[in-house]
Every structure is written in structure tokens, then in C-alpha cells.
Write a structure and sequence with these properties.
- With 491 residues, the protein is α/β, with parallel strands linked by helices.
- The chain has two domains: 276 residues, Amidase signature (AS) enzymes; 85 residues, no CATH class.
- 40% of the residues lie in helices and 12% in strands.
- The chain has an eleven-stranded mixed β-sheet, with helices on both faces.
- Strand 10 and strand 11 form a beta hairpin.
- Helix 2 runs antiparallel to helix 3 and helix 10 packs across helix 12.
- It starts with 7 loop residues before the first helix and ends in a 10-residue tail after the last helix.
């Protein structure tokens, strides 16, 4: 039996029924990583011995029959390399942190481990989460497993590629402006960005603190909901954590009815900003939902140019502040050939950070300067408030919004090498939910006839209403693919 093509939901049943042990399952994934990842490069670190030990411990708990077995018990997982993992290197794909081994685990990781999950390794990413292609890593780029000449998306490209390639059944990523949803779309898997504050940011190495969100990547919607249920909830260690109760969603999806659900569709934005393949896939998705009794409503999203500009202004400003601590003295690898403190700062940061990180630090520092703060940064904050208010008005008309994830199919590696700023426009559909702090899920809804590459659709919901987002996603998945299924190609 090929366990590496199964969903979390399927594997959970096999483990509960004792048809497979966690150690057997873990070994099969570790073997697949050894065989396959040299061509994909989804992982920065593979924690083989730690994984085997955790799998053996999970098997002992299952054999003992003591208490309920959590749905994630004994199932292997991968973690994006900006989430701290106790005893396992956490590099943020940066030279400045290449030898950092955290003394604690991020809260999301700790919750998975507390449920008996098996961490097999840390996945590649754009350095410090800054990028949407997984080309900006100090440890080499990751290839899209569906077409190795193309990017897997980013910044959680390693996590999405690992799931799509069958190297793990699920992974955690982080989403600041689309970094879970876009790679999920490019790799043909499912990625969820919860509401801001729904999943603890404790132990997530910060890029932009008011935007960063931890979310799961899986092969199907129900499995995604299972992982979300395991990591969501209030955490007093995170001052931005929502204190409201986080309701479980996975058990409420099967048999749920979306008849009468109002689906907002930004037709004009789709028409003006997507290619023909994306337009066709979104049109088909709309029809599937309409056939299930949903009411389709034409809506207009807030100004996309303003939203994109506000996102890059705010995220770069926060990045400049957050990354100032990596100076070779307080945090980060220190340059040794220095005679003054100033030289330590300069050489450590110059050698430790890559070009994209430097670009955003410079932009953020400029925006926060005394002369520019009122002209740009404060206006970006005002724009954010306008965008949040705009979504509040839209959700009086509809229950969820259906939109593309990306304007095109996954592009070829190196396309934006000569003009990296041009890549920012690829985020035009994903930054909305990030700016407004809304839950949004990406799932595959079609394939290009010529390349067989996937097209992802995005469902955005009201803040703190993950259940409705998952219900709409499950209904769409059921219509597109016939119920619970594997999203990615079997590789």
C-alpha cells in the first residue's frame, strides 16, 4: 500500500484501527524523502532520529489503549523553518540563523507534538518569509514537484512541495501576504490562513507581526480542518491571540449543506487581472457552487493597487523593525573579522541577509524615517482601516468571497531574476485577507489543459468564521473532485 499518497484523514483511520504503526508510516515517509527530495529540495533539515523516537512513543501510547487517540497521533508532519522546534535547527532559510537551535518549540508545533504528531523535518522557504517563489533561500531554491522547471510558490514553498510530492501528509506554513495559500495553489494542495490571532504566533520568527499567521497545508479539505483544530485556540503567551473559543470544524463538514449560502465573486477584478486558464477555472468553480444552491453575487473588492501598496509598506516597515535584532551581538551569526562594534553590525548583517531581505529592510527603514513616516507609513495604516471597513460592508452582502489565488499558473524559475519587484504583483489576490486579518483557504479547482498544472481558488470569510470558510471549501472540493480525495498528483 502506498501510504505516501494518502490524506491525513485516511492515515488517521489506519492508525486508529491498528492497520499500520506510526513507526512503519514514519519510515515510509523518511525513505520517500531520501529517494525524492534531492530533486525537489523541499527540506532544509530532516530530523530522522527524532522522528523515529516520536513514532515509537506514539505507538506505545496507542498500544496501551490509555485514553482517546487524537486524530493526528503518530502521523508524520513537516514544519516551515521559521517555526521554532526545540532541539532542531530553525534557520528561516537565512545565513544569519544557519546554526540556530531553539531551546523551545513554537506553540503551534508544541500542540502538534502534544497530540502525538511526528515531526520529520523543517521545510525550505523564502528567507524570513520574504518572497512568493521559494527562490530567496540561502540553502537553494525548491522546485515545484508537478513541474521542476517552475516555482512551488512561497514563502511556504517547501511545505507545499513536500505535501504535493507525498513526502509528508501535512505541513505547517506561515502566511503574511499569501505565503500558505499561493504555494498551495501552485502545488495543487490545500492551504489555510486562519483569522489573525486564531493560531498562536508564539515561536514563529517574526516577519511582519501584525500580518503573520500560522496555517496548515494538506492534500484535502477535511484533513486541513483536522490540523487546524489541533493548533487553533487561545494562547496567553501571544498577546495578539484571540480569547474567544475556537470551535472545532472538521467533524461538522461531512453532510453540511451550503444551499442558500451567498458567494461574492469579484468578476471585474478577475477579468482584468487573470489569464484565460484562471478565468475558466474560476468560472467552473462558480458554477459548481451555484449548482449546489448557492446564491452568486457580483461584488467589488477594495482598490487592488491601494491594497498591494499598503501591504508592502506595512510589511516592510515591520520587517525593518523586527529584523533589527539580528546584528551579530543580540541575535544572529557574528562576523569575526571585526575591530569595532559598528563593523560587527555591518559585516554580520551584510553577510547574513540575502538580497530580498535587504531590499525590504531598506524600504521599511525609509518608510519609518521621520521625513517619510507621515507621507507613506501612516497613510498605509489609514488605507488598511479603509480596507477592513470595506470588507465589513461586503460581508453584509455575502457570506464568503470566491476569488483566484494567483493571476497565472506557476511561473518558471528565474522569471523575475532581473526585476524582483515585478514579482510583488503576483500577490494581488492574497494580500486582501492578510491586510484585513480574515480567514482564507486555497484549494485546487482545475488544471491547465496544456501543462496539467493546477489552478487554485481562494475562499475568504468573515473574521473568526473559519467554519463557514471550510464548509464552502468542502462543498466546492466535493463538486470538483467527488468528495474526499487527494488534491495533488501522485508522484
Amino acid at each position: 500500500m502506498n501510504y505516501c499518497t494518502m490524506t491525513v484523514n485516511e492515515l488517521s483511520r489506519l492508525i486508529k484501527e491498528k492497520k499500520i504503526s506510526s513507526l512503519e508510516l514514519t519510515l515510509s515517509y523518511l525513505e520517500k524523502i531520501k529517494e525524492t527530495d534531492k530533486n525537489i529540495r523541499a527540506f532544509i533539515t530532516v530530523s530522522e532520529e527524532t522522528a523515529k523516537k516520536a513514532a515509537a512513543e506514539a505507538d506505545a501510547v496507542i498500544r496501551s489503549g490509555a485514553g482517546d487517540i487524537h486524530p493526528l497521533m503518530g502521523i508524520p508532519a513537516a514544519i516551515k523553518d521559521n517555526l521554532c522546534t526545540e532541539g532542531i535547527k530553525t534557520t528561516c532559510a537565512s545565513r544569519i540563523l544557519r546554526n540556530f537551535v531553539p531551546p523551545y518549540s513554537a506553540e503551534a508545533v508544541a500542540r502538534l507534538k502534544g497530540h502525538g504528531a511526528v515531526i520529520v523535518g523543517k521545510t525550505n522557504m523564502d528567507e524570513f518569509g520574504m518572497g512568493s517563489s521559494c527562490e530567496n533561500s540561502a540553502f537553494g531554491l525548491t522546485h515545484n514537484p508537478l513541474d521542476p522547471t517552475r516555482v512551488p510558490g512561497g514563502s511556504s514553498g517547501g511545505s507545499a512541495a513536500a505535501v504535493a510530492a507525498g513526502l509528508v501528509p501535512y505541513a505547517l506554513g506561515s502566511d503574511t501576504g499569501g505565503s500558505v495559500r499561493q504555494p498551495a495553489a501552485y502545488c495543487g494542495v490545500v492551504g489555510m490562513k486562519p483569522s489573525y490571532g486564531r493560531v498562536s504566533r508564539y515561536g514563529l520568527i517574526a516577519f511582519a507581526s501584525s500580518l503573520d499567521t500560522v496555517g496548515p497545508i494538506t492534500r484535502d479539505v477535511i484533513s486541513n480542518a483536522m490540523v487546524y483544530d489541533a493548533i487553533a485556540g487561545y494562547d496567553p503567551k501571544d498577546s495578539t491571540s484571540l480569547q474567544e473559543h475556537s470551535e472545532a470544524v472538521a467533524d461538522k463538514l461531512k453532510g453540511s449543506n451550503v444551499r442558500g449560502m451567498r458567494i461574492g465573486v469579484p468578476y471585474s477584478l478577475i477579468e482584468s487581472h487573470t489569464d484565460i486558464t484562471v478565468k475558466k477555472a474560476l468560472s467552473s468553480a462558480v458554477k459548481h457552487l451555484a449548482d449546489q444552491g448557492c446564491e452568486i453575487i457580483d461584488i467589488t473588492l477594495p482598490d487592488p493597487g491601494l491594497t498591494l501598496a499598503a501591504y508592502y509598506a506595512l510589511s516592510s516597515a515591520e520587517a525593518s523593525s523586527n529584523l533589527s535584532r539580528y546584528d551579530g551581538i543580540r541575535f544572529g551569526e557574528r562576523a569575526e573579522d571585526c575591530s569595532t562594534i559598528e563593523e560587527v553590525f555591518k559585516k554580520s548583517r551584510s553577510r547574513g541577509f540575502g538580497p530580498e531581505v535587504k531590499r525590504r529592510i531598506l524600504l521599511g527603514t525609509f518608510l519609518l524615517s521621520r521625513e517619510m513616516c507621515d507621507r507613506y507609513y501612516k497613510k498605509a495604516l489609514m488605507a488598511r482601516e479603509m480596507i477592513i471597513n470595506g470588507f465589513s460592508s461586503l460581508f453584509s452582502l455575502c457570506d464568503v468571497i470566491l476569488a483566484p489565488v494567483a493571476p497565472t499558473l506557476p511561473y518558471r524559475i528565474g522569471k523575475y531574476s532581473a526585476e524582483p519587484e515585478a514579482r510583488y504583483s503576483e500577490d494581488i489576490f492574497t494580500v486582501y485577507a492578510s491586510i484585513a486579518g480574515l480567514p482564507a483557504i486555497s484549494l485546487p479547482v482545475g488544471k491547465d489543459a496544456d501543462t496539467n498544472l493546477p489552478v487554485g481558488a481562494q475562499i475568504i470569510g468573515r473574521a473568526k468564521d473559519e467554519l463557514t470558510v471550510y464548509r464552502a471549501a468542502y462543498a466546492l472540493e466535493t463538486a470538483v473532485c467527488g468528495g474526499e480525495r487527494r488534491c495533488g498528483n501522485d508522484i
